[in-house]
Structure formats: structure tokens, C-alpha cells
Amino acid sequence: MKNLIDKLEKQHCLQKDEYASLIRNCDPGLSEYLFEKSRNIRHEIYGHDIYIRGLIEFTNYCKNDCLYCGIRRSNKNAQRYRLTKEEILSCCENGYSLGFRTFVLQGGEDPFFTDDRICEIVEEIKKKYPDCAVTLSIGEKSRESYQRYFDSGADRYLLRHETADPVHYSRLHPPELTLEKRMRCLYDLRDIGYQVGCGFMVGSPFQTEENLAEDMIFIQQFRPDMVGIGPFIPQKDTPFGEMESGTAGLTLFMLGLIRLALPCVLLPSTTALGTIDPRGREKGILAGANVVMPNLSPVSVRKKYLLYDNKICTGDEAAECRNCMQTRMRSIGYDVTVCRGDRKNF
Ligand code: 5AD
Ligand code: FES
């Protein structure tokens, strides 16, 4: 197995069956071998810098019904909220003073936020903070809508592909959502000029090692600027509420593989990883991740943006995720930087 990791390190690509056998053989020994290489390559490109993004979860209304997600429209127990434009701008003001130079506007697919409203919000943020990047993460839209947001100043877009296997995709989503549409969106975004992020959950229901290998093949072929991955975690009010979580071990292993396949990729160590393991975000960095996305949403709504159970950073003591993150990163020898944190090329 180590020879496959050596090969990935040298060539930055493998065949599907090679990825699948690595994933099948993921154990602590092989992981350590991988992480030493993925960490090294990350140090060559990004040093010990950690890029931070201020995450603003501005609406948990969603017209979709993804089977895994706690804010799916059928979840009658979700307490719905929307932030006003003023509330979003005040999150940015707070974030700017805390050293954030990227704001990620994330939300469900909420028809209240028309293109006009999104564009107005993006324009105001970019006008007030011209040195900041704005990332949108608001789901599937038409190419025209994506173009309008881009023309308003949005720089980046996150849209996880969730799984690169169409049959697996159909088991995680209602029939009106297809992998084909998802991919169309990702290619539109790329074409328009966004820095694009895709990604998937590790250990989602029905996922096989071959599915994960397919995710790697898609990533090495699409070459996204960012890849967001985290363990699947059940949310009790969803059809998958009794399913098992993904593991931290396999999530970390996938982070390492992604770093070797795409040395320059912007790779977050996610909140979901921090939720299944109290030191998960630190371990993600040590496996090759270089981005963290502390929560900037008002504390009053944080308990409502619950994609999965037991999400961290939702209590009152979490008002300052920024400082918490700084301490955590310093504890493992890394430094949070005040900059947009764009992708490097090499
Ligand atoms: N567990 C882990 N991640 C989830 N997401 C949605 N629901 C869950 C869950 N139950 C992820 C999806 C989505 C992102 C915003 O959050 O991958 O794209
Ligand atoms: Fe949110 Fe630590 S990062 S409380």
C-alpha cells in the first residue's frame, strides 16, 4: 500500500482501483505514512499558515429535501430563521475587526433570497470591504443567476457534489435532485470564473470504498480550487437519523489523499470533523488541511442551523470562535493569518 501513496505523491493521480484499495486498507499505520507526506507538501506550498473564513449561516429555510440534512424542508422540528441584510453586514463588521478577510455566506435554498437580494448583499459587502473575498454557498441556481452574483462581486462558490456516483447520489436525495444537475452547476461556476469548491461526506449511508474512489477520480479530473469534506453525522429528525456516523479516521485519510492529488487545493478542516472528535480540526490540519471556517453567525441563531446532531460552536461560550481557533492552531504549531487566503499556483 505504501507504494501507492508514493506513487500518488509523485504523480498526483491514481486509478480508481488503486484509490479503492488504499481506502480499504486505511489503518493507523498507513495513515501516519500518508499524513507525513500530505503535511510536507502542504508545508511546501502554504507553510504553517492557516487561512480562516468567517462562516455566516444566513438562512436555514430550504426548498430541498436531501435525506441526510437537518434543515430539509420536511423537518417540521427545525426552527426556521433568516438574517436581515443589516444583520449579515454586522456579522461582517464584527468579522473584519477579528481579522477575517473572507466571508462565506451559506444557507439553504431559500426562495426569499431572490437574485436581487443576494446581489444587493454581495455588492454591499464588497463595497464596504473591498479587500475581502466573498464566497457563496447557496446551492443549485441557473447559470444566469450564478453570473449575476459573480458580476456583483462574488469571488468563490462552494457546492459539494456529495458523491460522484449517480446511483449513490439518488439514494441520498429525492428524485428531483440529480448528480447530472449538480455537475452542470459546478461546470457553470467554473466557466463563469469563480474559484470553485466541491466536496462530499465521508461515511454517508450506503457509501462504499468504490464510491469514495470515484470521488477522488472526479476531484483529480475536475481540479477544484477548494474541497470541503466532513464525516456524515446523523440528524435525528431525518430519514437517516438512526444511521451510523462516518469516522474521523477515514475522513482524515481522505484529506491526506486529496492533498497529495491536488497539492495547491484549499482544504478546510471542517466543523463536522470537530464534532465527531474534540481534536478533529487540529488532526485535519495535521493530515494536510490548510483552512478553518469558524462560525460568525449571531449566537442567537447558531443552535438553529443544525445540519446534523451535536454540532459544536453553538453555545454562548462560542461567541468567539476566532480566538478559540487561534489557540487551537497555535497548540499544533500553526498560525492563523489575516488575508483573503487565495489559492496558490505552482
Ligand atoms: N452530516 C454531515 N454533513 C452534512 N451536510 C448536510 N447534512 C449533513 C450531515 N447530516 C453537509 C453537506 C452539505 C454541507 C453544507 O453540509 O455535504 O453540502
Ligand atoms: Fe467555535 Fe472553538 S471554534 S468554540
Model description:
The protein has 346 residues and is α/β, with parallel strands linked by helices. The chain has a single domain (2-337), classed as Alpha-Beta Barrel (TIM Barrel). Helices cover 44% and strands 12% of the residues. The protein has 14 helices and nine strands. The chain has helices at residues 2-11, 16-24, 28-46, 85-97, 115-128, 143-151, 166-172, 179-192, 209-222, 248-261, 271-276, 280-286, 299-302, 321-331; strands at 49-52, 54-59, 102-107, 133-137, 156-158, 195-202, 226-231, 291-292, 335-337. A six-stranded parallel beta sheet has the order 2-3-4-5-6-7. Strands 8-1-9 form a three-stranded parallel beta sheet. Helix 2 (16-24) packs across helix 9, helix 3 (28-46) crosses helix 10 (248-261) and helix 5 runs parallel beside helix 6. It starts with a helix and ends in a 9-residue tail after the last strand. 5'-deoxyadenosine binds at residues 68-69, 160, 162, 201, 230, 232-233, 235, 272, 307-308.
Radius of gyration: 19 Å
CATH class descriptor name: Alpha Beta
Number of helices: 14
Ends distance: 28 Å
Supply database-style keywords.
346 residues; alpha/beta; TIM Barrel; 3-stranded parallel beta sheet; 44% helix; 12% strand; binds 5'-deoxyadenosine
Give a summary of the structure in a few sentences:
The protein is an alpha/beta fold and 346 residues long. 44% of the residues lie in helices and 12% in strands.
Secondary-structure blueprint:
Blueprint: H1 2-11, H2 16-24, H3 28-46, E1 49-52, E2 54-59, H4 85-97, E3 102-107, H5 115-128, E4 133-137, H6 143-151, E5 156-158, H7 166-172, H8 179-192, E6 195-202, H9 209-222, E7 226-231, H10 248-261, H11 271-276, H12 280-286, E8 291-292, H13 299-302, H14 321-331, E9 335-337
Parallel strand pairs: 1-8, 1-9, 2-3, 3-4, 4-5, 5-6, 6-7
Helix pairs in contact: 2-9, 3-10, 5-6, 6-8
Bound molecules: 5'-deoxyadenosine (5AD) and FE2/S2 (inorganic) cluster.
